[in-house]
Amino acid sequence: MADKEKLLNPDPGVCVPWEVKLEEIGEFPGNEAIVKKEWEKLDDFAYNFIWFWAQR
Amino acid sequence: MLTDALSIAIADLEEEQVAGMVKERLASGVAPLEIVNSLQMGMAEAGNRFETGEYFLGELIMCGEIMQDSMIVLEPLLIGSNAEYKGNIVIGTVKGDIHDLGKNIVVMLLKGSGYNVIDLGVDVSKEKFIEAIKEYNAPLVGMSVLLTGCQESMKETIDAIRAAGLDTKVLIGGNYIDDLVKAHVGADYSAQAATDGVKIADEIFSA
Amino acid sequence: MSEKQMLYQKRLERYITAMDCGKPDMVPVAFGVGEWIAKYTGTTLQEIYYDLDKSNSIVSEMLPGLDFDIFKGGPSLWWPPMFDAMGSKLYKFPGIGVEENSTFQFNEQEYMKPEDYDEFIASPTEWLVNHYLPNISTELENPGSYRSTVALIKGAAAFAMQGGIMAQAYGKWTMDHGIVGQGTGFTKAPFDTLGDALRGMKGVLLDLRRRPEKVLAACEAITPHNVNCGLAGAGADTRFPCFAPLHRGAYPFLNPNQWNNFYWPSLKATIEGLWARGKRMLFYAEGDWTPYLDKIAELPDKSIIFQIDTTDAKKAKEILGGRFCLQGGVPTTLLTYGTPAKIKEHIKRTIDELACDGGFILDAGGVVMGDAKQENVIAMIEAAREYGVY
Fold it and tell me: How many CB pairs under 8 A join A and C?
């Protein structure tokens, strides 16, 4: 269950914002943009899956 | 014009007032049946308001909810009292369809107008319809269908009723019901608006 | 350019011209394969729903003989295996829950409770994951359990698989038959999102009286998400509209005050949000919307295609015509109970009345279900070509 103190309230098209993930990763030796792009693609897929059920 | 405060309260959809008054009246010894009558008069008024365009389906559903909440309290107390009905009407959503919103509104309005409504629920087989019509000797049967794909099942039910030799009048209703559908399935009446059911029943039972 | 590619271009142009309220070379015709196909192909509805390859190959076999412009899709709206994987309570599908030749049915319940409003409004997507999905899916009853995790993996995989299979099928239909798809993206009126799946119709109607401020706040919270759903991802194809089946806004569900204050503002905001990104909505107005035509006319020009179901078609033409493309004109019941001759006659009249100055797409009014007759559906397409040349 979600901790009410730490709601992400993600924007449309987002489940876990990249900024949140980036902060957790901390040090970033490679090219962030490459990772971010693919992260966001899958995040968008998950978002569509979740909202699919609400838009039945 | 309504004069009974309880009738006025339910017609105005004042749910808290209605709940309070039902409790008070029971406590002061008013017969449960009398309370039901007051509620029904108010519901009939809500039906009239729908008719004149003052109320919409949302209000009718709300009114039905308030009635239902009251009946939870009143129904167990009604056993043994002799209610007088204008007549018996069998009603149900036909086989294959589980939508009951339209049907429930019509049931509520018919009950409110003093009919004994035998509500068979949803996804009702033709056998069940026939059995109930016979058991209650009902001069009118109402069939509801939302899905156009289930209109065929309505026709089959009506055919079966006729084949069983019953001359019960058949009223059909639903969002996609029109004269084309009525002619095709062989019904006697079709209802477009929620309050048409009461008008048609009054016509049949006053004849 | 191949013959089929040229055909595709011609049809696409016809469609786009009509959407922009112009007059193409002929009235574009929209067509969908409905559940009625089952009885002509010797398959059960269950097979058509469950076996996507089968249902797509049925469509592939039908297409060569039919000359229409806009394809509205195949016979099944949903792929039940995905729902089975999740243990979804939302629907009963043919062969599971209802008989193998019965259509699907929605199982409406209050999946969201009145006390859930605040948490939902605070973070809609998180609430859906934490509470709604477990409420609607028996397999997710114990989040984090073995069954629940497996179900989510399967559900998401099914979602991706279905998307891939359908994209491939559309690609093939475009290549082989010059077919133009009607739209991309799926959305709703925020009030319908709340009222259909979350609170249920009865729930939301009661909320309008008991907690109207929550209903408003929820619709507001849903709006940006519904804009996003309509766009269908970042790389949205804005040539085509998103599909939006509209329910509780039909007359006479809500009273004018409720319609004006609760239904319309968030739907309007959704449409304006989409239009700001160049995306149109197929405003699929199921039922009768005649009393609201003046309000709908307040939308930005061309931002919707207005679907005429049981709305007064002449009034729609009078009030919306010229500024919005209209789609429809063939009553759904006529396809079931009419005859090819009656349909031809009706279409001739419809085209005279509604299509005259362009901005019109001929289509069945509502969702064509299992009871339609194939000969009537085909007569509709043929008559459209016969009378539809400008």
Answer: 78
Res C265: pLDDT: 98
- Establish whether chain C is in contact with chain B, requiring a minimum of 3 CB pairs below 8 angstroms: yes
Q: Is residue A17 part of a domain?
A: no
Same domain, B131 and B48: no
Q: Is residue C287 in a domain?
A: yes
- What CATH number corresponds to the domain at position B31? 1.10.1240.10
Average pLDDT over chain C reads 93
- pLDDT above 70: residue A24: yes
Band of the pLDDT at C234, cuts 50, 70, 90?
low
Residue C79 CA to chain centroid, in angstroms?
16
CATH of the domain at C372: 3.20.20.210
Q: Mean per-residue pLDDT for C91-110? A: 86
In a domain, A49, yes or no: yes
**Nearest-CB residue to A44 (from C88, C106, C234):** C234
Select from A1, A15, A51 the Cβ nearest to the Cβ of C225.
A51
* pLDDT (0 to 100) of residue B195: 81
Percent of chain C, pLDDT > 70? Answer: 99
Chain C residue numbers touching B56 (CB-CB < 8 A)? 252-255, 258
**What is the domain extent for residue C262?**
3-82+152-387
Asked if the structure places residue B83 within a domain, the reply is no
The answer to whether C276 contacts chain A (CB < 8 Å) is: no
Reported in sequence order, the residue ranges of chain B that DSSP labels E, i.e. its strands, are: 88-93, 116-119, 140-144, 169-173, 189-191
Is the CB of residue A48 less than 8 Å away from at least one CB of chain C? yes
> Does B47 touch chain C if contact means CB atoms closer than 8 Å?
no
Which chain C residue is nearest to residue B60, measuring alpha carbons?
C253
Sheet containing strand C70-73, strands side by side: C30-32, C70-73, C180-181
* Token couple for B148: 């156009």
**B146/B140 Cα distance (integer angstroms):** 20
Tally of domains in chain C: 1
Q: Choose among C344, C349, C305: nearest CA to C327.
A: C305
Domain that holds residue B52: 5-78
Contact B98 C92 (CB under 8 A): yes
C227 in reach of chain A (CB within 8 A): yes
Query: Is residue A23 in a domain?
Result: no
Number of domains in chain B: 2
Residue B110 and residue B200 in one domain: yes
Predicted confidence at residue A26, as pLDDT, reads 87
CB contact at 8 A, C358 and C13: no
